[in-house]
Amino acid sequence: MPDLVLAIDQGTSSTKCLLVDPSGSIVRTSSAPVPIRYPRPGWVEQDAAEILDSVLAAAAACLQDVPRGAVAAVGFSTQRESAVVWDRRSGLPAGPVLGWQDQRALDICSALRAKGNADLVRGISGLPLDPMFSAAKLRWLLDRAPDAAIGTVDSWLLFALTGAHQIEAGNASRTQLLDVRGGAWSPALLSLFGIPETALPEVTPSSGSLGRIGPRGGVLEGLPVAAVLGDSHAALFAHGAAAEDGVKVTYGTGSSVMRLGVSDSEAVCLTVAWDDRLAMEGNIRSSGATVAWLASLLGVPPEQIGNMASSASSDGVFVVPAFGGLAAPWWDDTAVGLISGLTLGTGPAQLARAAVESIGHQVADVVDAMGGASRLLADGGASANDTLMQIQADLAGVPVRRARAANLSALGAAFMAGGFRPPLSYDDFDPRPIDPAVRRAWRDAVARARTPQQGS
């Protein structure tokens, strides 16, 4: 009997494929890049056809010489909030993919907020009125392609590969159009954003019989899709039993801080983790992106920033990476990036340390907004940096358990699709005492980065 599962992790910059067996061992991996374009300040675009091509290329490489009968199912982990439009008849993209970082729909959100709709949006969707989420981006796209079918990246891939117009519940909960507690599209939110329900996909569970891949899938043809998850949700699922009482932090371009359960705090989001299971989440717009920005500024490879930070002190320097505003727990889309505490003695090493510390401070802010934690479960590319993990433990004041396995988003999709959930192994980082004035100084820097009305 076939027992391998192909996990397809479609991320912002690349698509990764993992062939996984029931023990959780990775049999084979592959990847394909996805271009990102920045046509104007604040605009972040991708091409839906290029995203699909990357999936097909990565899958073909991963399944090369693998007997067709050896693969039981496919599981998808996808980037979230990015908005996609396509022509139903031709199956071709009808506009650019607006990435989760894209800010062009800011005016749409601002107009709705000015009319007093923020509380309505938050109350139904569980999300703050913010251009990071899909609804305003979809409205912008429909203004230019009014007859298009719409969805998120998982919707586009499922349509292209299986012919079904559907969206997984967790991804649907990130659109800002779903009644998060009811699990269905909200008539009030559809009316508010001007989105016709006929353009939207059907909301489906995260696992089960989600379609069979057709001829457009190349080497994937005939394989059943057994699971679809948003990338952050998939990483949480991969942590297994540890996720029941831990706070998961995925360190990537941005960071996702997520825990199972419900919170009434407006500092964090309410979202669908998978199927009908709810979770709270705080999204950080710039974490790894901060390191990449500083590396580009200094003309060094990104990994050198981590090396510089490991042996330096920030010496009172703080980097507040509000390149496109601040997300959780502040939700201030008018905040501006700021470096404070500069002196004539400040050099590249101090800036590197401050940039890495900014990641830990932001995560600690979200954890505080969630009411604290007994431990953090770390994963994602930047979690490989021991310096960051120790900084995180120190600033949050709780142990950090770093998953030794990489690619947890892909593994979570494989585990759900395959119906297995093997335990993970971890590296532990215990917190060391810090001067409370450090956290107070960070919050002062954040206040200066924010608008006078919101940062005072």
TrEMBL record:
* Domain Carbohydrate kinase FGGY N-terminal: start-end pairs: 5-237
Q: Which domain of life is it from?
A: Bacteria
Keywords attached to this Swiss-Prot or TrEMBL record, sorted alphabetically, are: ATP-binding, Kinase, Nucleotide-binding, Transferase
Transferase as UniProt keyword: yes
Record-annotated Carbohydrate kinase FGGY C-terminal domain positions:
248-417
PROSITE patterns documented for this protein: FGGY_KINASES_2
Q: Which GO terms describe its molecular function?
A: kinase activity
Per the similarity annotation, which family is this? Belongs to the FGGY kinase family.
The name this protein carries in UniProt is ATP:glycerol 3-phosphotransferase
